Amino acid sequence: MEWRDEGIILGTRKHGETSAILEVMTRTHGRHLGLVRGGRSRKQQPVLQPGNRVELSWRARLDEHLGTFQAEAVEMNAARLMESAVAVYGLQTMAAHLRLLPERDAHGGLYEALSVMIAHLDDADAAGELVARFELLILDELGFGLDLSQCAATGARQDLAYVSPKSGRAVSREAGAPWHDKMLALPAFLQRGSGLRADPAAVEDAFRLTGFFFTRHVYEPRGIEQPDARAGFLAALRRHRTARQAIAGENAA
């Protein structure tokens, strides 16, 4: 068995004295693992870093075997991403979400989304809304997608302000008013085609929304916890905002 594909590195782990197990998200073969012989060498280590885009060749005697990878660098992103705590935790969070999907199942849309994330993840002002959108994509791929297109009660497409915790569908401000304290807030930037940017409060609401449905449909049924990287990502975002506000305050003074 043999194939060639493009992939983004999610992580590595040691194997024996000189080799490494490489985990990648590929364009057409989904999340895939393989052995890289000599993967811990000085030549290979800079290439096999999370966030790097690589050209892959995979070989195995049988399709169900781990197989071996040969990886050649296409785009070296790791050094840039490692300079930002937001980017490091963001990449780790997305890798944890991708591990919720079956290995080797193709998810071309997620690969393309991950590529966009990698390009912008070190922009801390944009990273929050990007990762929140990625979480919505993961929920959709897992079969638990939210319907944020129109009000579940009236069919209206305007002034959608809430999401029903029971149905995962959007609710307009007027229809949801009597039960607003039981609803989840729907940040306007998450609505398709809104073209809006997210302020800090909207980002917090977005992760509260996605976190609720991850817990209900994924974490609790599987008996697992939210990935530590997700909490680390949110904490890094908050530290970034605090630092920016302090700088703004000093400049204003």
Describe the structure.
With 253 residues, the protein is α+β, with helices and mostly antiparallel strands. It folds into two domains: 2-77, Nucleic acid-binding proteins (OB fold (Dihydrolipoamide Acetyltransferase, E2P), Beta Barrel), CATH 2.40.50; 83-148 and 186-252, no CATH class. Helices cover 40% and strands 21% of the residues. It has helices at 78-81, 85-98, 108-120, 124-141, 173-176, 200-222, 228-252, and strands at residues 2-15, 19-26, 31-36, 53-59, 68-75, 160-163, 170-172, 184-185. The strands form two sheets. A five-stranded antiparallel beta sheet has the order 3-2-1-4-5. Strands 7-6-8 form a three-stranded antiparallel beta sheet. α3 runs antiparallel to α4 (124-141) and α4 (124-141) packs antiparallel against α7. The longest helix is centred in the C-terminal third of the chain and has 25 residues, at 228-252. It starts with a strand and ends with a helix. The relative contact order is 0.11.
